[in-house]
Amino acid sequence: MDTRDAIQEARNRGLDLVEIAPNAQPPVAKIIDYGKFLYEQKKKAHEAKKKQVTVQVKEIKFRPGTDDHDYQYRMEHARQWLGEGDKVRAAIAFRGREMTHRELGAKILKKLTEDLTDLAEVEVYPKMEGYQMFTIFVPKKAKVAEKKASDGAAEKKEEKPEAEKKPAAKKAPAKSKAEPKGDDEIF
Predict the structure, then answer these.
(1) Which end of the chain has fewer CB atoms within 10 angstroms, the N or the C?
(2) Residue-number span of the structural domain to which 95 is assigned
């Protein structure tokens, strides 16, 4: 259809001529309500954004002299975050003369890597950046998929009993004559 004819037809219908695919041969245009078209595009973009997963990078910090209990505590937090699908950045801060013993930091990160192998993969292998040595762990794909599948099943089970319950009618408490009214309230 000729462009002029399409514009005339759109005016007759009280709608707009909208070019959908300008790069196609020939260009594709539709006769639609442009405001409604924009609204639907915005709605689709909002839905896509809602389904998008945002991955946070959580950080745990160590020192070269970190004790076993502190290490275990931080490692458990890292396991929890990886199980939730977040990335974990493990950093070891060196101060002063500790810089001469970088092998202590590397030893801690190696132990952490071994402890998290079942849940995580190493995205960035240990490297120095200023006075810090760090590594970044990302959750394994299979573990995150299993976690999401089990969460979805748990949500469906929880929803069903709530839907079956019928809301009980609430009775208003009977007002006694002894209750104060308005400004006469007693504290």
Answers:
(1) C
(2) 57-142
